[in-house]
């Protein structure tokens, strides 16, 4: 298998993860979607120097991994391409913000370093939660849930088609890189001079296929209603899950957990 | 059941790929649409399904193919795409099979029953809960056919149903097609398959009908086939 085919295979495996059984998988997609959004908003709302406040937020993804049976390694393995990008966001903070904020064992740590770590963690936490959502919820159920929440049909279809389009594009990319490497033996990657035509070809080819795929959906009566997705009524369990989670997030956000836990040991 | 009346079509302005084409297919017929690459076979199928709009009139069961009749028309027609990867877009075969019928408003119980019937008929029960990215090309083609049958269409259109299949799977697909009792329109340049599955053949060349008649007659006419960039089916070669 070449690299691309492997990436493709991984993408399809998300569907398999999402089809498993666990208490989290069986929750209503809307409940999971809303909790995830609230989690992300709360995580992003921490002050850029509030590292000690942010760290306890990791508790939630940890619990979710446990209960849903999704493997943490799988998560980081699949996110290995995006993770560095998200982490790179704060990379330059230490150069701009050199004022010493804390001293640990005689070594001064600047505000820049702290805000860099805070930003990185925010990125990692949010990615983990998004991954967990995708790994425990089928894309079509998620779309059906979005429609129930009155998100415009146009947007929901766009999300659903993008999900499929990414798959199609990776497939075409796999075929093209293979064809290229066969004619350029011993060469690593694709030579810069070929990037333009390569990208153009890729877009045309994947657009053609996406068009076919969309036709095939239309021919089978697709009209943005998601009749075919498994979706059951929202029940008390879902509401309870959502309520408890959100309460928990606010607790993590506004109670000083680090100090609480610290206090247990000191006193 | 299917009627073309003076249909012309051009993808780009003025460059016609179909010229003033007329033909009629009756209910229950199995018709092979043959012609070299680029003859216009796929274009004919797409016009029929309303995926493309041309000049002239196309009627399905007496209903004209137009924007506001598309829903009705498409419920009558099942289209098996040339590339099954584009047809099977849901995670599993089962989910693909229920997609169409549920969209047309059938209840889950009815649909589940249909799915089981179709899978049983095609001997494909083992495929039901398999993931589409983990089945072979041949299985995927059979899955695509099952997906269309689950919609219980009145007519089945297939674009190159045996392309890219090994001999075993090709034979399996041919046998399956032979057992279908719907009206069939099959586009292909696999003339042996057409001979096995169709009673009538329409030969397309350069966007025009070059011949239309009984399959045995047209497919044994060496000169006619060669003039249109095709060869006699293997099974016709020894005969005179
Ligand atoms: N999307 C398109 N845009 C422009 N020309 C097209 C397109 N699709 C097909 N054609 C042209 O239309 C003609 C008929 O194509 P097609 O119906 O696909 O033939 P067949 O299926 O018989 O091989 C060919 O000359 C082809 O180049
Ligand atoms: Mg074709």
**What structural category characterises the helix and strand content of chain A?**
mainly alpha
Count of individual beta strands of chain A: 2
Low-confidence stretches of chain B: none
What is the averaged pLDDT score of chain B?
A: 93
Secondary-structure element series of chain A:
HHHHHHHEEHHHHHH
Could you say which small molecules are bound to this protein?
adenosine-5'-diphosphate, magnesium ion
Helix/strand-derived class of chain B? alpha/beta
Query: Over the alpha carbons, how many angstroms does the gyration radius of chain B reach?
Result: 18 Å
DSSP summary: helix tally of chain A: 13
Describe the secondary structure blueprint for this structure.
The complex is a heterodimer of chains A (267) and B (240).
Chain A: H1 3-18, H2 29-45, H3 51-54, H4 59-68, H5 72-78, H6 82-88, H7 93-96, E1 100-104, E2 107-110, H8 111-136, H9 139-148, H10 153-183, H11 195-219, H12 236-254, H13 257-266
Antiparallel strand pairs in A: 1-2
Helix pairs in contact in A: 1-10, 2-8, 2-12, 4-8, 6-8, 9-10, 10-11
Chain B: E1 2-10, E2 16-25, E3 30-34, H1 41-48, E4 55-60, E5 63-64, H2 70-76, E6 77-80, H3 84-87, H4 93-103, H5 108-121, H6 137-149, E7 155-159, H7 167-179, E8 183-188, H8 191-197, E9 200-205, E10 208-214, H9 215-219, H10 222-227, H11 234-237
Parallel strand pairs in B: 3-8, 3-9, 6-7, 7-8
Antiparallel strand pairs in B: 1-2, 1-4, 4-5, 9-10
Helix pairs in contact in B: 4-5, 4-6, 6-7
Adenosine-5'-diphosphate is lined by residues 11-12, 17, 35, 37-43 of chain B.
